[in-house]
């Protein structure tokens, strides 16, 4: 498949794809089918044909003809219009209702009876055909919704199937990359875990005592040590700046340090000079 990049806005790309029947992803046209326009109505007709072949074989019986003809006629009417739709519908009737004598007349009458130019909703069409969720999954039907599930249950069912497909694709990708399957990874992880080894039994202590000792010897993180100090230092500089009315440059020096001295050391020296205090090293001699 050839990837062709068109430098056009998304609206123009979408119109070009619909007009030429191209397959696109966002603004990238992946493949072209000149002279053939994509119609969702055609996909629905293919889905109904799969359902007919599964239920009856090659032809629709006379007793169930009306419900199928009504939905298929609406699809052709929405996709091709009144005149062209009647011709496509007549050819379809010749194939799936061979017992009918005058398919052209029946198609024209059905088109006039429907009068709905928009494609039926998936739920409405599936309800007319009595589509079951099992038939939809087995036949891979995409344009009809099952009538034996509510909208919420059908949405949850589709989500569960998508998760299962994603899980299988991820497993295939790991296998292709030479990785472990998820059951093997879980087994190795459980074997190497502390809970499985139970080192507290060999040490003769309880499980709770083992984890308490491990927590006690664990060094605190650097962020926990530095964050309160930096916060206090910043607050001290802001307070001193407010009380003594420091210049912006002087306050910036106190915040970031100067000549190898930290901000806290400069702050202490500045506060000591203002309060006529001496550093701890000089006061110790007294």
Description:
With 286 residues, the chain is mainly alpha-helical. Helix content is 67%, strand content 3%. The chain has helices at 10-20, 40-55, 65-80, 82-96, 103-114, 122-129, 133-139, 151-176, 182-192, 194-197, 199-203, 207-217, 222-244, 248-256, 263-274, 280-285, and strands at 4-5, 23-25, 28-31. A 3-stranded antiparallel sheet has the order 1-3-2, covered by helices on one side. A hairpin with a 2-residue loop joins strand 2 and strand 3 (28-31). Mean pLDDT is 75; it is low at 1-8, 222-231 and 276-286.
Brief rundown of the structure:
By secondary structure, this protein is mainly alpha-helical.
Mass-distribution shape? elongated
Instruction: Enumerate the strands of the largest sheet in spatial order, edge to edge or round the barrel.
Output: 1-3-2
* Major sheet characteristics: 3 strands, antiparallel
Structural class: mainly alpha
The level of helicity is 55-70%
Q: How are helices and strands ordered from N to C?
A: EHEEHHHHHHHHHHHHHHH
Helical run tally: 16
- In percent, how much strand structure appears in the residues? under 5%
How many DSSP E strands? 3
